[in-house]
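Input.
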Amino acid sequence: MLNFVECAASQVRLHQRSCNSGENKRCIKTWLPSPPGRFNYWPYFLNRTTDSIAQPKGGVKVREPNLLLILCFVLLFATISGAGCTSQTSGASPPVPVPPSTAVNNAALNGNYAFVFSGLTGNGGVSSVYASVGRFTADGAGNLTNGELDTNTVAGAGAAQTFTGMYSIGNNNRGVMTLNFSSSSAKLAFAMLANGNAQFIEFDASGGAGTIGSGTMEKADTTAYSTARITGDYAFGAAGFDNAYNRAAIEGRFTSNGTGALANADGDVNAYGTDYPMIFTGANYTVSNTATGRGTMRLAFTFGGVPDSMNFVFYVVNSGKLFMLESDPVTTATPLLNGIVVQQQMPEGGFTNASLNGNMVILLTGHSACGTVGGIPKTVVGLLTADSSGALSLTYDENFCSAPHSVTDAAGTYSVAGNGRASITVGGYALVAYLVKPNEVFLFVSDINVLFGAGEPQTAVSFTNTSLTGAYAGMATNPVGYEVTVFCGQFAANGGSMTGTEDIGAPSGPNPGVAFNAIYSISPSPTNGRGVMTVTSGTGGNIVIYMISPTKFVAISQSDPKPAILMFEAKN
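Output.
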């Protein structure tokens, strides 16, 4: 487990945590254990406020515990005890309405799946991080078998919990799902994608208690359920919180030999706002269950001169992708991190500055402070343009403290190492990235907001309104606050307006079948693919769009006081 407190003692002073020393005791005492069998998932959460993408400006006083640099990188997943899914309850749960034309499209979900979830669990105004990873088999007729789930939260971890379930998909490709554990159940709402994958949310919180969050289900390749199939170069990224809502993130890369050893490992940790290199002393993995694709991974390293380690459980999606969740107990010294490992496509001879060339859409989530109130969600989306020689420009939009902020063509520089690590400076801020392939990265900002996310290559076309046409599935991703509105749904765009139906999960209770209507405008200039959308019914309000391709775009609300990154992908 990561011992940020020990490291802090050997470093310089750091930023304050979300509670002062007295408050911490109260916060920890009021964390409520999850009911047995909750289906929980991974969370990004609570960020501190700043005037811009990085360091706070103008007087937001960030806490100053005497602990030097608490590197507790807040793992984005909270552990739970017991056997189950996110908001499973042992008693009666509120009814979850079924989409129209029930079960007419159940065949769309068929085969083996792996999933990852990020969220928060709460009760009576107190909330904590929660995350999960797992797998199941869908029969195409509404039944789930061979389910297995790992969870982690402040209350403790739940390992390899078995479940069965049922699901129903309507004619608009919206569905509901129930996961049944030995003494509890959890309900989800989901939206199908064209490739058979799905976006989903927790859909059973009620009366101010339960779990909210979102995740993805992806088709799994069972032939990759072995240690030998995990071979080659990989990049990884994860983020989360500790038990006092301090946020942290890690990213890096390693090479797997297919026998359980991980070599050439390199990484960085943003521990409560300070970037530290991870100096690896050992790393290994194993696919321990070849029937379910469940495995474990251990990373041993030093940061800030202090030796440490992290333990993860993962589920295999395929030989090039793993969904991972930290399994260490969540404390003030060890955050709960949750994320992904993906195959790194390293060019012959290694990466160079030329590996960043052209346009890349970035999306980042963190938390900030508004005045004296901490843990406020912060989101950033933008377009980074690199010239392949070390120079770049960045246009971005961000939302925190109900104060949207836009920056156009901020100049910067970058340097890419052969293993894919990239150092970026722009507008006075420092960022660290690890390349997955040219123009695709894991990315964090070295600031107290611990903004973490990804960058994806933008398709080389001039985007206009007609680029956004057709059917899309959409959801709110990685909520970092219990009050964030999470939704998933199906939408149709015609080149200027969008309609749809969304299912909304909230602590007060599920809200199914909400009508969505909006108008939008997208331009190739001055920022290619940037657009604005005005929502007249449904969630979002005033939205800024960045097109990744005609089949995928990301967005943030400029009017939502508790924003999340919104992700939309083509449904057909």
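Residues 353-457 form a domain with the Lipocalin fold (CATH 2.40.128.80).
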